[in-house]
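QA checklist item 7 of 12: single-chain prediction sanity check.
[x] sequence parsed
[x] length recorded as 158
[x] structure emitted
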Amino acid sequence: MATYETILTIPQSVDETFAFVSDFRNAAKWDPRTFSVDKTTDGDIGIGTRFMLTGGMLPEATVARLHLPKSMAGMALPYDVAEFDAPHEFVLVGESRLVRYRDHLEFWPDGNGTRLRYFAELELKGPLSIMEPLLGRMFQRIGDDATRDLPATVVRGT
């Protein structure tokens, strides 16, 4: 299983940061490999909310530059909210035919801003599991790319 962890400082309040990040539809604004995210359940966001993320191994800008169809470059990944303790903790889990994944986000005050711990796990399934030793380094890069613009996006998005 590959893991990724980072701690970010975001110059917005914990309430504002949690509200923005826990609405996982916003991931398309800060993660270059996320093309779109739809909320597929009704009601407020909380335990049991489902999001459907469409994304891929390549950033959307690269897909466009190479003139690849999004359907070829991306895949649909369901994410379910497994834990929701506003404004402190948010956990998403999901599974597809090929992978199992979990994103655990923790928020706490840092002066007038927020510290965000983002911890993610990714496990390859079936025949792909033989590639697990190579996954760690790649997952680190994907995680760094995914979270690099998160603080600035939260500031712009709230």
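[x] summary fact logged: The mean pLDDT is 88.
[ ] second reviewer sign-off
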